[in-house]
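Researcher: Here's the sequence for the chain we discussed earlier.
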Amino acid sequence: MEQNKKFKLVSSKKTRYLLPNILTLGGVCLGISSIKFSIDGNFSLAVTLILLAAILDALDGRVARLIKGTSEFGKELDSLTDFVSFGIAPVLILYFWELNNYGKLGWAIALIYSVCCVLRLARFNLTKTENEQEWKNNFFEGVPSPAGGLLILLPLIYDLSSFDFNIIVKSLTPYLTILIALLLVSKIPTLSLKKISISSKTTVFLLLTIGIIFIALLFYTFETLLIFSLMYLITIPVSIFLYKKQQNRNSTKISDEDHEDIL
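Model: Thanks. This is the structure I predict for it:
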């Protein structure tokens, strides 16, 4: 007698690949939905969905590495999702909010940002780090697309927040969009913190900090998002300094090893 074969969507050995990809697909759904809500004029919800998409983007890769569910398919899917959620959706939100007032120029600025984002993602997929330069895994080359997608929304986030510094931030929208687009394709090192190890003693404090951040985002979403976005911009000069310091240290180490080999 033939045994009944159970229908399986994927092999039991490959089920660990499902969760990261589900998180990635959830991100693209959030990005597309944010466009819909921006068309409806609900910009607060549109920005919130971009924020949630960024959180999912930060989780899917880490979950994949944690459960050993990384794959080439997941890598390509993640890049496509990033382009939709952070290369198209945020700039369209800006277009419906402010850039459309600039006519053809506003649309050209939106296109420039999207082109820079797709170029940044293509370069990221082709970037490979050699074994002796593993320290570079703690740095991105240029601003990552999720951060860029949130940074270009700063004028809108400020407008939605309760802050009032008597500054007309709305007029800075086209200039900021171009600036972030250039940072996306630049070779400026920015912190990624992928390989940072956390001791067991600091785990509790880390969890407490994450909890406080989520509570702040829950009750003061736009104010918290604005503060953290500005803090991220401040860390860029710091990351440049740390990168050059690590680069010099690595170069000195390699030269010393070569000198020992000669002797």
